[in-house]
Amino acid sequence: MAAKRILSGMQPTGTLHLGNLEGALKNWVQLQYQYEMYCCIVDWHALTTMYDRTDQITSQAIEVAADYIAAGLDPERCAIFIQSHVKEHAELHLLFSMITPLGWLERVPTYKEKRENLGLNDESLSYGLLGYPVLQAADILVYRAHAVPVGKDQIPHIELTREIARRFNRLYGEVFPEPEQMVNEVAAVVPGMDGRKMSKSYGNAIYLSDDPDAVRAKVNEAFTCPTKIRKSDPGIPENCVVCQLRRTFDPDGYLPSWEEDRAGTRGCVQNKRELTDVINARLAPIRARRAELLADPGQILRYLESGADRARATAEETMKAVRHAMGLG
Ligand code: TRP
């Protein structure tokens, strides 16, 4: 039996950090061996917020591709491509926009949040921003994907994707499967240096592109247990960013360090030094591969083109079925 199809998407809004690596990428690297996988760098989605900084989008997309490949996604195995290289996403988005009730979109939590942050009359509250999840549904359904690996925050978008698929199928006949979200429950939530979730927008992240000194400097600034002032004070590893990161990046070896922290026989300086070493060891091969890739952007573009060619072949088949079902053309 042919492998089931899955599609993942990521916005090219910056290079990837350890939270992306642990929360998503590590899992995707496994999935590429079990599924027919499409990895879409969604540059059109990025326009919903970066429409006035379009000059940055393509170079960021290339960096994201380098991050993906450096972290272990194999461009021969999984189609890594840029959304705007496969125009079928746009065509399906347009067709879906005709059958998606406005009320469904106005209820989407991510839209409600953005609207509240921006204010009702803000000119960046665009038609495209409201339609963001319709474009996402097109990304997924243009491959008739069975499942979508995503974080919890994306579940409403996948639910909407199913509703659009169902509505299309009811109106025009069975074309689309109803895709499932694949939420990786065991993925670590990686804290940033300030203890909040690691995020580009909080400025608390360690990037795959950071060199060893940058990692050291960031770890040295990280929040530790506030009641542990001296080395001999008992620490609470659950309240310490450094201890939490140690558990994620040294899952087999962290326990003794936690015991010493609690017992007051280990201080934060040693703890930070060792965490820096653990993270740098993990990043070293990724960093090396990344630098090698970025030294030859032409090769990355060739990977992205061949990914787009494979994606397009699948997307064209779907669009034929869609046009036929709708009686178009
Ligand atoms: N909305 C997703 C995010 O912000 C990105 C995305 C766009 C996506 N299209 C997708 C994710 C299709 C999965 C499938 O993370």
What can you see in these coordinates?
Helix content is 55%, strand content 7%. With 329 residues, it is mainly α. Strand 1, helix 1 and strand 2 form a beta-alpha-beta unit. The longest helix has 30 residues. The mean pLDDT is 95. The structure holds tryptophan.
Question: Can I get a quick summary?
Answer:
The protein has 329 residues and is mainly alpha-helical. The chain is built from 14 helices and 5 strands.
Task: Output the keywords.
329 residues; mainly alpha; Rossmann fold; Tyrosyl-Transfer RNA Synthetase; 2 domains; 3-stranded parallel sheet; two-stranded parallel sheet; 5 strands; binds tryptophan
The overall pLDDT, averaged over residues, is 95
Low-confidence stretches: none
Gross geometry: elongated
CATH topology of the largest domain: Rossmann fold
- Separation, N- and C-terminal Cα atoms: 33 Å
Q: CATH superfamily of the largest domain, called what?
A: HUPs
- Helical region count? 14
Number of strands: 5
Helical amount: 55-70%
| Run of helices and strands | EHEHHEHHHHHEHEHHHHH
Biggest sheet statistics:
3 strands, parallel
Strand content: 5-15%
Bound molecules: tryptophan
Number of domains: 2
CATH class of the largest domain: Alpha Beta
Structural class: mainly alpha
> Order of strands side by side in the largest beta sheet?
1-2-3
Compute the CA-based radius of gyration. Answer: 22 Å
CATH architectural category of the largest domain? 3-Layer(aba) Sandwich
